[in-house]
């Protein structure tokens, strides 16, 4: 988590008078817009998240004093983090809240050990940082000291010699959302206002971070969809790969490791498209009615697990819940149809089985519950 933690009490305060309101509004108009839209309903946006924003701003300042350090907007500072961790960031704002608390907004730099390069961090200069566009608000008392950070042109050397011994430096950008590194643009990104926070005209705060969802067919390891999402984000569009489908199990495992937020399905695109059609029928409660009377027994199905359940006939077992859904032939019995992954009452997840829907037609409530939750969580896209 890239946030500051207030340390031991030290002399910290703002210097001078607040900036005139028209000057502050001209420079940080987005923050005053958020305050106006919030209308005092809450004090924070994205509370306890890495991009937390204070809403109840009262006024802005140009300078602050922390210990013996005089700090200006644009200075780089060392900030106390979790436990003994210390972070480096650039000051973007000084402001006081309506409750009289002193805050600063910071744009963070990342060390190699804080990125996907952590296993190779020992080969990097300890002074090397990576630029990022991650910003958030922190209490002024989190600042430890002022530091020097300089920008260098990209170099093949892991430890450049053209840096002052006491300075940190950066020569590349780290994209937090996609865990990737890239060369810095000639003009570094503006980090205020945050693209994914400031609502458009007429939008509420709750809708200001609306996501657009992407389905990646023949996804491989997800490189193409990741690049598309990065490009969209640079343009101010919050595009996210929600679903990915590929028949190669190794590619799917890699995609799951790098993008745990994506629902990855290891199956053919043809089976997945048929599944979407069947899913639409289920969501409209049509398919359940069609198969309602195809078999007997309530919440039971014919099955022969490896273990027998106490006090139950050996050929009948009770369904605890449905775990997943697919279209195809997961049991390799030559029959392609809609299947559910079944969790059996009294058995572990390792003994889940795939059952065709015709064997579960009288588990109507279980199927309805699964479909209802699946639609709510966007388990599958609807055509």
TrEMBL record:
Signal peptide residue numbers: none
Residue ranges of every copy of the Chromo domain listed in the record: 317-373
Compartments where found: Nucleus
Primary location: nucleus
InterPro entries per UniProt: BAH_dom (IPR001025), BAH_sf (IPR043151), C5-Methyltransferase (IPR050390), Chromo-like_dom_sf (IPR016197), Chromo/chromo_shadow_dom (IPR000953), Chromo_domain (IPR023780), Chromodomain_CS (IPR023779), SAM-dependent_MTases_sf (IPR029063)
Domain BAH: 69-185
GO molecular function, one term: chromatin binding
Compositional bias (Basic and acidic residues): 297-314
Ranges where the record places region Disordered: 294-314
Catalytic activity of the protein: a 2'-deoxycytidine in DNA + S-adenosyl-L-methionine = a 5-methyl-2'-deoxycytidine in DNA + S-adenosyl-L-homocysteine + H(+)
CDD domains recorded: CD_CMT3_like
Record GO biological process: negative regulation of gene expression via chromosomal CpG island methylation
GO cellular component assignments: nucleus
Record flagged with keyword Lipoprotein: no
Record's keyword annotation contains Nucleus: yes
Superkingdom in the source lineage: Eukaryota
Keywords assigned: Nucleus
Protein name: Chromo domain-containing protein
Species this chain originates from: Genlisea aurea
